[in-house]
Design goal:
With 77 residues, the protein is mainly alpha-helical. The chain has helices at 2-12, 17-28, 51-76; strands at residues 41-43, 46-48. The N and C termini lie far apart (59 Å).
C-alpha cells in the first residue's frame, strides 16, 4: 500500500526534483535526523570543551595534513 502511495506522489511531482527528494526522505524516515553538534572533542585523548582550543587543534590538524599532502604532490611531479 505504501509503495503505491509513494509511487503515485513521486509520479505527480516528477518535474520538481526538490519535492521528489523531500518525498524520498519522508519515505525513508530521514526527515530530521540531524545529530546535535558535540559539546566536547577528544584532543590527545583528553576531552576538550573550550571552543577556541577545539578550533586551534582543528586548524593545526588541517595545516599539518595539508602541508603533508602538498609535499607529497610536489614529489610526484
Amino acid at each position: 500500500m505504501k509503495a503505491i502511495y509513494y509511487k503515485q506522489i513521486l509520479d505527480d511531482n516528477k518535474h520538481d526534483i526538490k519535492k521528489c527528494w523531500s518525498i524520498l526522505k519522508q519515505a525513508t524516515g530521514k526527515m530530521n535526523n540531524k545529530s546535535p553538534f558535540p559539546n566536547e572533542f577528544l584532543i590527545n585523548n583528553s576531552p576538550v570543551s573550550d571552543k577556541r582550543e577545539i578550533a586551534e587543534s582543528f586548524n593545526t590538524f588541517v595545516c599539518k595534513h595539508r602541508s603533508s599532502h602538498e609535499s607529497k604532490r610536489s614529489k610526484d611531479k
